[in-house]
Structure formats: C-alpha cells, structure tokens
Amino acid sequence: MRKSVLLIMMLFTVSMAANAQKFALIDTEYIMKNIPAAQSANEQMQEATKKYQSEVEALAKEAQKMFQDYQAKSSTLSAAQKTKTEDAIVAKEKEAAELKRNYFGPEGELAKMRDKLITPIQDDIYEAVKAISQQHGYDMVIDRASATGIIFANPRIDISDEILRKLGYSN
Hints:
The protein has 171 residues and is mainly alpha-helical. The chain has one domain (17-166). 71% of the residues lie in helices and 5% in strands. It contains seven helices and two strands; from the N terminus they run αβαααααβα. It has a two-stranded parallel ribbon with strand order 1-2. The longest helix is centred in the N-terminal third of the chain and has 38 residues, at 36-73. It is elongated, with a radius of gyration of 29 Å.
C-alpha cells in the first residue's frame, strides 16, 4: 500500500514537472530608458505637451477674462449686447475645448506623435521578446512595468538586458 502511494506521488510529480511552464520577466520602462531613440521621443513628446498645454490654457484664460469682463459690465449692457457677449464667451470656451481635443484626444496630435515615434520602438521590443521567447522556450513573458500584481520576481528570470542586446544596445 505504501509503495503504491509513493508510486502515485512520484507519477504525479513527474507529470507536474512535464507540464511546468517557463516564464520570463521584462521591464519595459528599463528597456525604454536604455534606448536613446525612446528617450529622444519622450523628450519631443514632453516639449509638444508643454506647447499644446500652454496654447489651450491661453484660450481658456481668454474665455475666463471675457466672462469676468462680462460680469463686471453686465448691468450696463443691453439684452442684445448680453446675448452677443455670452455667445462670444461660449464660442471661446468651445474653441478651447476643441483645441484640447485636437491636441490631447485619442486621435489628436500627441496620439499621432506617439504612433510615429514610440510605436515603432515598442514593435521592435515586441519582436525581440518574441524571438528570445521562442529561442529559450518561454511560455509567457510578463512585463514588470505593467504587472502591478508582481510582488517579487527572481532576477534570473528578468530578460530585459537580453532584449536590449538583441536590439543592439548594450548595458
């Protein structure tokens, strides 16, 4: 009886080992920080963000000033002048909102810039991860930067430096 239990346990252990999956870990933030083109792209996007934000804020401030002037003068304005001024304020606010959407929306200038500058780098990283995963037989590669549930990972399964070498960047 004891031998059969041991035999079953050994078979179970062997079958579990045969089904074990190989995992690897990457850190895309680390990889991106070590790729000069990615750093340059991030700097360009930050500069564009500041520029676009200042333009949107200028329009919003202009609308706010128009509203404050309207409030100060509203008692002296005729009904037609009030309506005209209110329409101008609403138009300026809409203009600011439209500009914000054109710059920061899902199909705005920043999204287009990101697609042009960052997406090709991310595609290269993906292809390198895919090639290394197939070469080493990894069943799954987890990104430390986006997997908030990782509390600890053994550094030996981190293949970030290998990805950088595959892309032609040494660390």
